[in-house]
Amino acid sequence: MRSSSRAARGVPALALALLLGAVAVPAGTAAENAPTPRAETSPTGFAAVAALGQNGTTGGAGGPTVTATTTEQFLEYIDTTGPLVIRVQGTIDITSKQGVRPNKTIVGVGSSAVVNGGGLDFYRSYNVIVRNLRFTNAEDDAVNIGQESHHIWIDHNEFVAPVDGAVDIVRGSQYVTVSWNWFNKTDKSMLLGHSDANGSQDAGKLKVSVHHNFFDGSRQRHPRVRFGEPVHVYNNYYKGNAIYGVASTMDAGVLVEGNYFDAVPHPCYSAGGYDESGPGRLVQRDNVFAGAGVGACETNGTVTEPRTYYSYALDPAADVPALVRAGAGVGKIGT
After folding, report:
1. Pairing state between β 253-257 and 281-285
2. Half-sphere exposure (CA, 13 Å, Cβ side) for 288?
3. Where are the alpha helices (DSSP H) in the chain?
4. Rounded Cα–Cα distance for residues 262 and 279 (Å)
């Protein structure tokens, strides 16, 4: 089933209480006036879909729980075979991109867990949860999901100053959810599909849900998509994104739904492609476009409905800025 550009009626979201009481929020918010964010204990969107032998994404559930306080411990645990819940405490300094084996939950303790200097790499990995971590100064990508990895949930993290991408999802990966993250002044925030020449591997894959993220002064790729369909971009807060919001290229199919674009000069590219990439398909509905200099969302064609894969609750776009400010980033979930 494919959707048209006509607006669809949003489904009211069920408000759930935060697992923690008083929490910090990104600067500029009166937390007491904000709607109550959901504090999911399991993913929604594509990471929750039963496929490829996985009944959703459960991470290290059923395995032992360990705590990493040093780089050596952290690298040992993420390279361990079998399910494992890895609690990260304090600052972990790593270099380059470090591989993560399947069936892991990597979760920061409290609001001060940091992975600094390097990033996480998924190579034919699956069933991994990454939550409540602040990624700083990655010398390449902070999170790279590649080589047909699947069922990955990237949730409630903060990304600061990676040299390349904050979150890249490439080379046939799919069934990924990126939710409730704070992209704090990042440049290349999120790439889906690494090149125009990789259609044979990426077409029909790159099924990704991007929801309730705070793209805070970040510049581009929120996300930039090649080939993937459907890519579901919903209930995100875009604030002051200098280059563009979402780009659908190379016949990708992207649904942009229920987002709030604040002072974004180019919310969406599609019909004209972007840079050297050819046109993609993009449907927008129920979004808010506000603030100085906000432009139009360029639409093109039709897109496979995400509801053919999963159900979801759509928050009203007008509520998204307060909701996402209150809920996105670290220190917002029970660990």
Report:
1. parallel
2. 16
3. 71-78, 199-202, 320-327
4. 25
Q: Which residues of the chain have pLDDT under 50?
A: 1-32
| Per-residue pLDDT at 33 | 59
Three-class SS of 157-215: CEEECCCCEEEEECCCCEEEEEECCEEECCCEEEEECCCCCCHHHHCCCCCEEEECCEE
- As a whole number of Å, the end-to-end CA separation of the chain is 39
Question: What is the distance between the alpha carbons of residues 15 and 330, in angstroms, rounded to a whole number?
Answer: 19
- Check residue 265 and give its pLDDT: 97
pLDDT of residue 185: 98
List pLDDT tens digits, range 145-158.
Answer: 999 999 999 999 99
Residues in contact with 287: Cβ distance below 8 Å, sequence separation at least 6, in sequence order: 256, 257, 258, 259, 260, 261, 267, 297, 317
Residues serving a catalytic function are: 221
pLDDT given for residue 13 in this prediction: 34
Interatomic CA distance for residues 101 and 121, integer angstroms: 9
- Of 210, 192, 305, 309, residue with least CA distance to 252: 192
Task: Dig out the tokens for 161 from the structure.
Answer: 């100053």
CB atoms within 10 A of CB 94: 18
179 with 53: CB under 8 angstroms?
no
Predicted local distance difference test score (pLDDT) of residue 10? 34
